[in-house]
Amino acid sequence: MFSFVRKNTDEIRASRTLRLYGFFLFIPHVATWFFWNWGFPLDERLASGADCWPFFPSCDLIRPSILPWVMPTQWLYLIFSILGALLFLKRRTVTAAWWVLLAVSAYKLLVTAQDYRFMGNYHYIPNFMNLLFLFVPGKILAARWFLVVIYVSAGLLKFNSEWLTGRAYFREILLPGALVPFASLLAVVLEMFVSFFLLSRNRGLFSLALASFVAFHIFSYHLVGFFYPVVMLSLLSIFALAWWLRELPPAESEWSMRGFGFRARAVFCLGLILLQAVPLLSPGDPALTGQGRTFALNMFDSFSRCEPLVLREREREWVDFSEKRNDVGVRIHCDPILYLGQARQLCREPGTEVTLGLVSKRSGEQIQHLIALEPQTCQKKLSFHLFLSNDWIRSTPLDPFARR
């Protein structure tokens, strides 16, 4: 194990690009601290109930025991993130910086695992990049290709009428209305095609592509807030650093299919691609059903609207717990996972039965879809499979002219 760690730290130590990129990889951690303390207050969210991940359905049971530790550990998270960034600036402290990056990344994963509301690409993408930087050889080459795969995957998600017409935005975009569809299409072209020019050896093409992505993320600030642009601009720095410090991988190694390094990079990127493919293999519209998207990119490719139904029956008395979720991100507020979790927590009460239902639609569509309608949810002991289709989730179009 230690020899494996030494190989990775030696590669970082030998490259000024990688040492500086290690510094930049701590910026998303510092930004996460600000986000969790002001933009999306961590302690308030943890105290306001529990929305558990499918792989951790009993997260609410341990919530009281972890609440007292949240803020003290948050300060440690910030301190070590700043310390780790500084340690990467010196060759002799690279090994210590590597271990600090591993520790703060593990802490962040542990915190995000406490609640489904903590999911988001601003965590998903840097988590994968941290994993790559820590463990995958040929890091400059791997990081550049990883980001291209991310951008292409994001562009594919946006290739739908809701995004291309501009109806997916939940905030007003700072453009004339007539230009919104063009700008939406331009974002798809940028991510799916221009991203490959980030790998170009031609200085002009590379500079134009990099400047386009920098402008894209800066412009997105008024739509998505500060966090995501800061994360992506930090990760994009690998392209500029490798160019300016003249540490681009040899052209022949860019396409070489030999050696352990290639196999490790191929497995990593192929695994990422397969995770994006899982939702496409699930029945129904994954933007509405949420199936297969737990470990995939969660782009703002649609603005879904829904009507949930959560009815509790106990001692022949019905209580309606149906309520739209306005305390979660717009992209996930209609995910069946949220309402199944609420139903399962109600099912823990003795003598209780729950009826679970959900009707959803994309904002740009007229037709609603029946996503779930399950009486006797407690008796059926419903669960959410991460990679397989779920029998209780459907995507049945409802006739808008049918008698109600």
In short:
The protein is 55% helix and 8% strand. The chain is α+β, with helices and mostly antiparallel strands.
* Beta strand count: 5
Tally of DSSP helical segments:
19
Strand line-up in the sheet with most strands = 2-1-3-4-5
Uncertain regions: pLDDT < 50 for 5+ in a row?
A: none
Describe this structure in words.
By secondary structure, the protein is of the alpha+beta class. The protein has 19 helices and five strands. The chain has a five-stranded antiparallel beta sheet with strand order 2-1-3-4-5. The relative contact order is 0.11. The mean pLDDT is 90.
Topology:
Layout: H1 2-13, H2 16-25, H3 27-39, H4 42-47, H5 59-66, H6 70-87, H7 94-112, H8 121-135, H9 139-157, H10 161-164, H11 180-192, H12 203-219, H13 221-224, H14 227-244, H15 251-254, H16 259-281, H17 286-289, E1 304-314, E2 317-320, H18 336-347, E3 352-362, E4 369-374, H19 377-380, E5 396-397
Antiparallel strand pairs: 1-2, 1-3, 3-4, 4-5
Helix pairs in contact: 2-6, 2-14, 3-6, 3-14, 6-7, 7-8, 8-9, 8-14, 9-11, 9-14, 9-16, 12-14
